[in-house]
Design goal:
Largest sheet: 8 strands, mixed
Strand content: 15-25%
Number of strands: 14
CATH architecture of the largest domain: 3-Layer(aba) Sandwich
CATH topology of the largest domain: Rossmann fold
Length: about 400
Amino acid sequence: MERTTIRDIAREAHTSVSTVSRVLNGSNHIAPETRELVTGAIQRLNYIPDSRARGMRLQQTNMLGFLIPDITNRYFALLAQVVKGTLVQSGYLAFLGVTSESEKVQDLYASAMLAQHIDGALIVPQGKQSSSLQQLLDSEIPIVLIDRPLEGRDDIPLVDSDPLPGMIATITDFKEHGHKNIGYIAGPVTGAPALALRSVVFRKLAAEIAGFDKVLVDTTHGGQRDFDLRLGNEYDGIIFDKSAVGHYGMRSTVIRNRISSKNSLTIQTMDNSYFAEYMDRIGQVLTDMMNEGVTAILFGYSPDAIVALTWLSQQNIKVGVDLSIASFDDLEIFSLYTPQVAAIAQPVIQMGMQAAATIIDRVNGGVVSSSRIPTMYLHRDSVGDAPNRS
């Protein structure tokens, strides 16, 4: 007996092959009468589409798309492992795509997802809404964003980490160790919503947690290094704000596209000239802050912290004694330094499990909302008592 084809269904229902295909793909842009004709033909001819052996009624493949920016990055590698493992336990498989922090590659994967029959997709977005990504987000395919928000797309559920708990604990730790002048180095906030959010949260907390004489905010990734001195009643002291404005030349732009906000940066990814330039900028920021009396610094971008540790060592500045530091992201390398580096850990396992559960709920018609998983501060000996500089 020959296998029933989609053309047989179209002939039986007196409609086109494309219309039958849209019905099979679950499109809502089909007249109810036409859908009934096609569904009736499917039932009469006992048609079972490929990869749908579990039943026509479900109209599901149990296949999901999953995009991450960097598989060599430990953070995203673990995220992928947790998400895929959680999905498998629920009977779903995920096809993994790596965008390499490229909007162009992201668009290629988005176009491929639109051409395939997948039940949904999990995406760690890169940059702003590119053309094909926007088409994917506007399609009827259930989508869940992970780790990074997309501007103007609050309608898409997002699972990310909440920097607030970890930052409260860090700033409180600085205060309890007697630090009166503290600093924050933000990283490349332009085009990185997660980094920008951390900077905003730090400013707010530094103003709310009383007891500091000075609070300085700076970045090593801005094109302008002029001070923007702001005085205001909302701040407990003075904030020097040198946040990123524009790009630091074409070489910096290329590197920034290769550096993820989850630390894909390593010394090996930079040539000697750029690394020297990068360290010079880190050194200048640290020098400015220490000249203003800063004794404790939180890094919002851990690659900056890694380079800063090298610079401090070269300058014979003792971490945890002369200058206390902490950083976002609990990298393995931070435990190898002496002293070990205090860190704000992002709950990647919980985020992965929550993201998988959220997309499964969406695929099955559930009403879901965004989720924020609290960060956690890990005190280590890089944060010590404030030095007496009188």
